[in-house]
Amino acid sequence: MKRHYVDPISVSAAFAHLGEKEQALAWLQKAFDARAEGLVYIKIDPAFDDLRSDTRFQDLLRRVGLPQ
Tens place of pLDDT for every residue, the chain, 68 residues? Predict the structure, then answer.
């Protein structure tokens, strides 16, 4: 069976677009755990606009080292 890398930030963005906030945040946590490079862009990526007010998203920004 062939395995392919799936970018957790892209999966999170897809869930965010679908309005699946819990899944979007769960996949952002997976991205953090995997040290995904793209996390540095989540503060400005419009895909995550609906998550910005969530305290879990704000905590993730802090843990990534992005000022709020």
Answer: 888 888 999 999 999 999 999 999 999 999 999 999 999 999 999 999 999 999 999 999 999 998 87
Please report whether residue 3 resides in a domain.
no
Domain that holds residue 52: 8-64
Q: Which residue has the tokens 């998203």?
A: 57
Q: How many folded domains does the chain comprise?
A: 1
- What's the CA gap between 5 and 25, in Å, rounded? 19
pTM above 0.70, yes or no: yes
Residue 26 falls inside a structural domain: yes
Residue 27 has a CB neighbour count (10 Å cut-off) of: 23
